[in-house]
Specification:
The structure holds 2 protein chains of 2 kinds.
Chain A lengths: L1 H12 L2 H31 L6 H17 L7 H24 L4 H23 L12 E4 L4 E4 H23 L1 H11 L1 H6 L4 H26 L7 H15 L4 H22 L6 H25 L1
Antiparallel strand pairs in A: 1-2
Helix pairs in contact in A: 2-6, 2-9, 2-10, 2-11, 3-4, 3-5, 3-9, 3-10, 4-9, 6-7, 6-9, 7-9, 10-11, 10-12
Chain B lengths: L1 H27 E10 L6 H20 L3 E3 L2 E11 L4 H13 L5 E3 L4 H13 L4 E3 L15 E3 L9 H13 L8 E7 L2 H16 L3 E8 L7 H10 L3 E5 L1 H14 L6 E4 L7 H4 L1 H4 L2 E5 L8 E2 L3 E2 H11 L8 H20 L4 H9 L3 E3 L2 E3 L13 E6 L2 E6 L17
The chains are: A mainly alpha, B alpha/beta.
Chain lengths: 303, 411
């Protein structure tokens, strides 16, 4: 209690740290937003809740680390992971997801959970259980006499996340495939009647999601670190992001991603690192409870 | 054709005669099975593997040297391993399976305190003795367990010496130790929280102030918020204990945020490979270890600690610095051999009684168990990373270098 009060007083007396936390939060929030966007896409279009989302991120991270180990700058990990994960996503769709897509919710949950375990153990076998990090060797910028530090990797991460997100949004709006994806999301049967090859749309969507995760993973390896079994934490965070925003609400997903980044930083500062992630789950509960109340009012109005 | 056949028969016969004495000697040694649940997957997999290497190295050495002699029989150690998936409940199940189905009568410890905590109620139930060298939580020794023997220094000793160093430094600088500010973060598990308790006791002793006292969940890989607080409050001492992942995360992010604290204590530096991966940031970190190759201790089988160091590096060339988790695992096998040979029996009760009377000099230090199963004479060795090398700086009688204060971090 005393520590919480003293942490709060630090923020009051030296407001510059608020800015520092905000910057950190926004910069890492971009990564959550990016991967959350992919999850929302698969969820909305295919109604598959992908529990292996965080593990796709880990594969991307390990690819980047591997490149770094062979003397290639980890920044190249972003396009490489994007392409490789596209292939992996496509393969997983053709072998597993296409068989479960028409089944009920639990089948797809179990299937993706199984994929998550296979990926975790595969990474463990291939690279060992150590915590790895890809060092981009980029400078750190000091602001306000070194009280705020902004790392170039995080800035680049933010920039890449923004560019990717923008590209995906434009693609969804403008291209034929984007239109087909949106049509399939609205009503798959109607889309089929009108001649859209929904099978192709699903394969594309799942691959795109995996590719986005791969790029996000490359950023994770540069900004934090990767470990074969750490994917689950990311899956949980992303589910919180998408659930809080409401799937189908893509701008909401991006806002929630940023919100989560900022919330984690402030929560960790004020309440201590032990509550950093617990607070996120509390936030989810609050959002769900509020939604529930709103919807109850809606339902009563309909009766 | 016939000739060739006859020739072949002769060769085979000669071979049999030549090999016979060896095979009969090898056959005379029966297997003596030890059981272990170790993490090969999950967050403890890295040190689980280090532990396994230590076990295997000692087992091979003992078996090659004639095994364990009980009466006229000789026995070769054989270890059955299961993967506990870094999950305490799983470890407890597996130990039950080892004892109940595999009929293992002697158990080796898993890696880490949470696993061991889950395992001990099972071994007590079956009255099966356990020798473990990987779990340091103080709470393991306060439950009144009769069949549990732990060789390593308990966790409250891990980072407490750093506080002593800070106090000493304040005194030589002509300041009062009570003015020292400490910032610390610990993983949320029995081991790390015991490390915290030991530090808190020292802080109280010197009337210092803990300005930050955070805990990190085991799957957290971002401590930016904590480090921002460190920047804001400018402590004199920074302590981090979060196993291998905590050390990597801390080194990584301290470098990014240019954290400039004069005295930094971190656990698990070796297994986190800080010198190899973060040479600049880790400069000046003070790391506790159970064992250092420059320690002046020696005993049977492995010789001195530097002999052991050379031998295991030859067997496992991937070790540039041997993690103490590996050397202590080897020492645990030595304890088993010693107790079994003194008991002259494979009866768990008799072996357990022999274990209570253990009084063994080893390359790893002195091992003599107290009534609670701990090894109180064991103290930590503190090393500071100075110019890409671990230099022993504490206790003073073993020290090969002096503490560099403030640490010379160059970002």
């Amino acid at each position: 209690m005393q520590q919480i009060a003293s942490n709060l007083s630090v923020l009051m007396q030296a407001p510059i740290f608020n800015l520092g936390l905000l910057i950190d939060g926004v910069l890492i929030g971009a990564i959550f937003a990016l991967a959350g966007y992919g999850l929302a896409l698969v969820w909305g279009v295919m109604n598959v809740k992908n529990l292996a989302q965080g593990d796709f991120i880990m594969i991307g991270g390990y690819l980047t680390w591997l490149l770094g180990k062979h003397g290639i700058h980890p920044l190249f990990g972003v396009p490489v992971a994007f392409v490789v994960l596209w292939g992996i996503g496509n393969l997983i769709y053709r072998t597993v997801i296409c068989k479960v897509i028409s089944r009920d919710l639990f089948t797809s949950l179990l299937a993706t959970f199984g994929i998550a375990i296979v990926i975790q153990q595969g990474l463990n076998l291939a690279f060992g259980p150590d915590t790895q990090t890809a060092d981009a060797q980029l400078p750190t910028w000091d602001l306000a006499n070194g009280l705020i530090t902004v790392t170039t990797t995080r800035l680049i991460g933010f920039g890449l996340a923004a560019v990717l997100a923008l590209a995906v949004i434009l693609f969804m709006k403008g291209s034929r495939m984007g239109q087909a994806i949106r049509a399939t999301a609205q009503d798959a049967r109607a889309a089929r009647v009108l001649g859209i090859d929904t099978e192709k749309v699903y394969a594309f969507t799942f691959s795109l999601n995996a590719a986005i995760c791969g790029a996000a993973g490359a950023l994770v390896a540069m900004v934090w670190n990767v470990q074969p079994f750490m994917g689950t934490t990311y899956s949980i965070r992303l589910f919180v992001v998408v659930t809080a925003a409401g799937f189908g609400n893509l701008p909401g997903v991006i806002a929630a991603g940023f919100g989560m980044g900022v919330f984690e930083q402030f929560g960790g500062f004020i309440f201590g690192a032990q509550f950093q992630q617990a607070l996120i789950v509390v936030m989810l509960l609050l959002v769900l409870a509020t939604r529930q109340l709103q919807q109850r009012r809606l339902r009563q109005a309909v009766q | 054709m016939l000739n060739a056949a006859r020739c072949a028969t002769t060769i085979v016969a000669t071979l049999i005669v030549a090999v016979a004495p060896y095979t009969s000697r090898a056959e005379a040694c029966e297997d003596l099975v030890l059981g272990a649940a170790l993490s090969t997957t999950g967050i403890y997999a890295s040190n689980g593997n280090n532990t396994k290497n230590g076990y295997e190295f000692a087992v091979k050495k003992i078996n090659d040297g004639g095994g364990v002699k009980i009466g006229d029989h000789c026995y070769h150690f054989k270890i059955i391993y299961y993967d506990d998936e870094s999950t305490p409940a799983r470890a407890a199940q597996l130990i039950e399976r080892l004892i109940d189905q595999d009929k293992v009568k002697f158990v080796l410890g898993p890696y880490s305190s949470p696993m061991t905590k889950a395992v001990l109620p099972v071994t007590e139930k079956y009255k099966t003795p356990v020798v473990q060298a990987e779990a340091a939580s103080r709470s393991l020794f306060t439950q009144g367990y009769k069949y549990h023997f732990g060789t390593i220094a308990t966790s409250e000793k891990y980072l407490a010496p750093v506080i002593d160093m800070a106090a000493e430094h304040a005194k030589t600088a002509g300041k009062d130790a009570s003015g020292v500010k400490v910032a610390m973060i610990y993983q949320d598990d029995p081991f790390s929280l015991d490390v915290r308790q030991g530090v808190l006791d020292e802080i109280k002793k010197y009337k210092m102030r803990a300005v930050i006292d955070d805990r990190m969940p085991k799957d957290l890989n971002d401590i930016t918020a904590f480090l921002t607080k460190v920047k804001a409050l400018k402590p004199d001492v920074l302590l981090i204990s979060g196993h291998e992942k905590g050390a990597v995360t801390a080194a990584r992010q301290m470098g990014e945020h240019k954290i400039d604290v004069p005295l930094v204590g971190v656990t698990h530096c070796e297994s986190a490979k800080l010198i190899a991966d973060f040479p600049q940031v880790a400069e000046g970190f003070v790391c506790p270890t159970q064992w250092a190759e420059s320690m002046k201790s020696a005993g049977p089988l492995f010789g001195s600690s530097s002999d052991y160091d050379k031998a295991i590096k030859a067997a496992y060339p991937e070790y540039k610095v041997v993690p103490y988790q590996t050397s202590s695992a080897s020492a645990a096998i030595l304890v088993w051999r010693d107790a079994l040979e003194r008991a002259q029996s494979l009866d768990p009760e008799k072996v357990r009684d022999a274990l209570t009377k253990t009084d063994l000099e080893t390359f790893w230090g002195h091992i003599k168990f107290a009534a609670d199963g701990s090894n109180p004479s064991k103290d930590m060795v503190m090393r500071q990373i100075q110019g890409d090398k671990y230099k022993v700086i504490w206790p003073t009688k073993l020290a090969a270098a002096t503490l560099i204060y403030p640490r010379d971090a160059h970002y």
